[in-house]
Amino acid sequence: MSSGYLCTMSKDLFSTASEDYAKYRPNYPQELFDYILQFVHEKTHAWDCATGNGQAAKVLAEHFEKVEASDISAAQLTMADQKQNIQYHLSPAEHTPFSNDQFDLITVAQAYHWLNWKDFYKEATKVGKENAVVAVWTYNLFSSEDHEVNKIIHHFYKDVTGPYWDAERKYVEQGYKTVEFEFEHLPSKDFSIELHLLKEQFKGYLSTWSGVKSYIRKVGSSPIALVENHLDKIWSDTEQKPFRFPIVLRIGRIRK
């Protein structure tokens, strides 16, 4: 168990970016879900915790009879994908309306570093079935095959927005190696998101960063303007460039 910083409560950092989040955040690869699902004994009920706009929930809905998806952001939930077998809840991860021993799988996509890990462990253990699988994952800083674009990414991340990231960001940078994850460990595996982006999509994705939102709140303007001229010099409006988002997964079982 890590003895480092522990979040004291779930943070709502993305309500103000809910539309952009739904539009510009990348989807997770099917290979990730296939890997997780091989450990799940029954596929009756899943909980996607901190669901955001339902990116993971909509995939789980293809495999489970019923999916419960929760988030503390009402704005995010209004943008969520609607499916017959998904029910959305405005609820913190640590205190839910769910019944005991309800879930076969619990997932937290790109949000575990914002949770109170001890309280989430207690809640997941309560509402999850014995032997239920808990899977949490995150992707770290993305990269391009274009070296000039990579220079912009690293400058923007470290020098421009670096001072404006929340403390929890360090857990993403550390590949979730230092987060508390008390479930019985299952073998993990690394994955990646591979996709091509237009320049406007690239800037749209940057706009969803919590570090960018913090910069705007404190400075009063978007930091993306600081790199737009450089981007325009090396990237035409119609060109698509390839990018890779590295994904790390922590996965385990509930034991009661």
State the helicity in percent bands.
Answer: 25-40%
> What low-confidence regions span 5 or more consecutive residues with pLDDT below 50?
1-16
Q: Sheet bearing the most strands, described? A: 9 strands, mixed
The rounded distance between the terminal residues' Cα atoms is 18 Å
- Number of DSSP strand runs: 9
Describe the model.
- The protein is an alpha/beta fold and 256 residues long.
- The protein has a domain at 15-144 and 167-196 and 243-253: 3-Layer(aba) Sandwich (Rossmann fold).
- Helices cover 33% and strands 23% of the residues.
- It is built from 10 helices and 9 strands.
- It has helices spanning 18-24, 30-37, 55-60, 74-78, 117-127, 147-160, 169-173, 199-207, 210-219, 225-234; strands at 45-49, 66-71, 86-90, 103-109, 128-139, 143-144, 184-185, 191-197, 241-253.
- Strands 1, 2, 3, 4, 5, 6, 7, 8 and 9 form a 9-stranded mixed sheet that branches.
- Helix 4 links the parallel strand 2 (66-71) and strand 3.
- The longest helix is centred in the middle third of the chain and has 14 residues, at 147-160.
- The protein is elongated.
- Residues 1-16 have low confidence and may be disordered.
SSE topology:
Layout: H1 18-24, H2 30-37, E1 45-49, H3 55-60, E2 66-71, H4 74-78, E3 86-90, E4 103-109, H5 117-127, E5 128-139, E6 143-144, H6 147-160, H7 169-173, E7 184-185, E8 191-197, H8 199-207, H9 210-219, H10 225-234, E9 241-253
Parallel strand pairs: 1-2, 1-4, 2-3, 4-5
Antiparallel strand pairs: 5-9, 6-9, 7-9, 8-9
Helix pairs in contact: 1-8, 6-10
